[in-house]
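In this section we walk through a basic example: taking a raw amino acid sequence and producing a predicted 3D structure, encoded as discrete structure tokens. The instruction is simple. Fold the sequence below.
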Amino acid sequence: MEDMWRLAARHISPGREEELIRELVAVEAWAWARVATDRRSARLSELLEAASQTLGVDVAAAVLEEAVAHHLASWTPHIRHHDSAVSVLRRLRARGLRVGLLSNTHWPRGFHEEFLERDGLAPLIDARLYTSEMPFVKPDPSAFATTLAALDVRDTSRAVFVGDRLYDDIWGAQNAGLSAVWVRNAVTPDFDVTPDAVIDDLSDLPELLPSMTRMS
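The resulting token sequence is shown next.
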């Protein structure tokens, strides 16, 4: 388990890595020594709790955060944004429109931000909101209200939500008072709702918006 302890020690205090590793390895040795005397089994959760008590810090949280970081890194080659996302967002911003992102996710902000930065999208999105930092996910009205507040939009008639999920995005946005554009696709679940507009490709959005509500 030394590799895990090393990651935890590096996460907790990089300058004390070797010292902390010795203490963490000693916790593991204690568990095995106990097995030799009374045959009591040890579990990882127990080791992490004992390590936390020994160091006076949350070792379990450090291990979890390191594990999550490595797990998310494995997704990197598989995450890609829409080919026309950059050009579409540039055109919208050139018109003076504020752009927000609202994503249902349980991953931390840093995961998403890494890919937005990598693909040049982060500077083009004025407010980036992730439900992992919010009490409720789409389609709850509070998620949309939080996004509008972040964009300083007080009049919902001036807001258009664009999404590919009929329930979470389209119904949710309309229920919160926004207009909703569905990016038609065959892979997300069906739902009985009528979008305010439908596009087949994200690149169709800039030409559509001036005809909707008061976006022109």
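Looking at the output, two observations stand out. The chain has two domains: 2-74, 80-211. Strands lie at 100-103, 127-130, 160-163, 179-183, 197-199. In the next section we compare this with other chains.
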